[in-house]
Amino acid sequence: LERLGARAPELPALWLTRARLAQEADDPRAARSAARRGLEVSPGDARFILLLAQSELRLGNVAAAEAQTDALLEEHTGDSALAIGLARLYLDEGHHEPARRLLLPLVESPEAPADSFLLLGDIARAEGEIDNALLYYRQVPPEQGFLLSRLRAAEMLVEDDRLDDARTFLRNERLRHDDWFSELVSLEVELLDREGLGEDADALLDRELARTPNDEQLLYLRGMRAWEAGDLAGMERDLRRIIERNPDNAMALNALGYTLADQGPVARLGEARNLVERAHALEPDNPAILDSLGWVHYRQGDPQAALPWLERAYRVMPDQEIAAHLAEVLWALDRREEARELVGEALERFDERPLIDDLLQRLPGIAPDDTPTRP
């Protein structure tokens, strides 16, 4: 940047980069200086005005920041997206009142943006105004932000020791928004799990599935909960029901096929492969399915056939589970150094890596020489 500044001091990108780097380094004075210089070389550039406003906020100069943002809004009258972006800027820096002033005019419009209600709900929640927050959250329409607003409303009630009210709120929202029934039930299940009420969550799922026995989303959720609890028969029962009613549900086909390949008896590996291949025919580029295909080949004793599937899956979605599978296959093919390098990469990349840790327990030699295994 110093060399570039010497050659091209009038380049806007130079000052934009310097301002952003200063913000990242928590140096708002340097960021303000760079943003001001940027405005000199590029007058009216909204990017520099926003950086300047952010710098002023971090320096505690709220009035100066508002002067910048007001000027920007005057140049872009009626731009609700800009107003919401500026409101987020104030909220990120902990200044509620300027954000509220930007958002209130938006909700008076017949076409009020959903985010304006969501952010006003967040402000009311932060200030302990529970009833106002609920009012705003419930006005987020059934589009983007809908589930997030209902989750935040329920979380707020739980934080106020009103779990029963939170559950009543979600139940009422299911009645009001039938198209979101499954998602709202899933949200309540998540909320109950967070509170350590897994049995209540299970009871809720059982009750709702007794009323809507063919709800694929809820069947899948219950199946995955059964798997987590070690109830493979329960998982298979729910996934089979989905597949019977919808043979083209790739997610259910893959989940059942992978589980049979990974945890089922050897005698069912052919069945597992058939399920995964059906899923692959439906979604040929899905990395989770590619991983399953590779893993079932490996479990059938053919690591060479498994390798290209796992390599392709890892290129698309380099997560710890696929990394563990690929490393184990490389190890089986006597490509030991490549396996160790991949494990080392996974150890550095992923904080949570249960399959990598399990692999290290089963194959201690696969650990990189300079990386200790976890106890």
Question: If you had to describe this structure to a student in words, what would you say it looks like?
Answer:
- The protein has 375 residues and is mainly α.
- It has a domain at 161-212.
- 75% of the residues lie in helices and 0% in strands.
- It has 22 helices and no strands.
- Helix 4 (46-58) runs antiparallel to helix 5 (62-75), helix 7 (96-107) packs antiparallel against helix 8 and helix 18 (287-299) runs antiparallel to helix 19.
- The longest helix has 14 residues, at 28-41.
- It starts with a helix and ends in a 13-residue tail after the last helix.
- The model has no long low-confidence stretch (mean pLDDT 93).
Element layout with pairings:
Blueprint: H1 2-7, H2 12-24, H3 28-41, H4 46-58, H5 62-75, H6 80-92, H7 96-107, H8 114-126, H9 130-138, H10 146-159, H11 163-176, H12 181-194, H13 198-211, H14 216-228, H15 232-245, H16 250-263, H17 269-282, H18 287-299, H19 303-316, H20 320-332, H21 336-349, H22 354-362
Mean pLDDT: 93
Please report the distance between the alpha carbons of the first and last residues: 46 Å
Beta-strand segment tally: 0
Please state the overall shape, judged from the principal axes of the Cα atoms: flat
Radius of gyration: 27 Å
* Contiguous uncertain segments of 5+ residues: none
Class from secondary-structure proportions: mainly alpha
Helix content: over 70%
Quickly count the helices: 22
User: How would you sum up the major sheet?
Assistant: none
The arrangement of helices and strands along the chain is HHHHHHHHHHHHHHHHHHHHHH
Assess the beta-strand content as a share of residues. Answer: under 5%
